[in-house]
Amino acid sequence: MPFAQIYLLEGRTEEQKRAVIEKVTQALQEAVGAPIENVRVWIHDVPKTNWGIAGQTAADLKR
Fold first, then answer.
1. Beta strands 52-53 and 40-46: pairing type?
2. Torsion angle in degrees (nearest 10) through CA of 50, 53, 55, 57
3. What is the pLDDT along the chain (63 residues), one digit of tens a residue?
4. Strand 3-9 and strand 40-46: pairing?
5. Architecture of domain 3-57 in CATH?
6. What integer pLDDT is reported at residue 4 of this predicted model?
7. Element (H, E) at 23
8. Residues 6+ positions from 36 with CB-CB distance below 8 Å
9. Catalytic annotation on 47?
């Protein structure tokens, strides 16, 4: 059973998350031939204060 974990900065819409889940599921199904019903995708919404870029938080960088 393929299982993908996706880490994103918080703030994406539900529509965007649905699109990520759909496209990652399709890519895994095509790449490894797994039945689509066996593919799992987990999106982690990470607070901008918990994401570091070049020594600063994403919040401080206004990302």
1. unpaired
2. -40
3. 999 999 999 999 999 999 999 999 999 999 999 999 999 999 999 999 999 999 999 999 999
4. parallel
5. 2-Layer Sandwich (3.30)
6. 98
7. helix 14-32
8. 25, 26, 29
9. no
pLDDT of residue 56: 97
Strands 52-53 and 56-57: antiparallel
**40 and 3 in contact (C-beta within 8 Å)?**
yes
What's the whole-model pTM score?
A: 0.87
Q: How far is CA 44 from CA 30, 31, 32, 38, in A?
A: 23, 23, 23, 20
Catalytic residue among 2, 10, 12, 40: 2
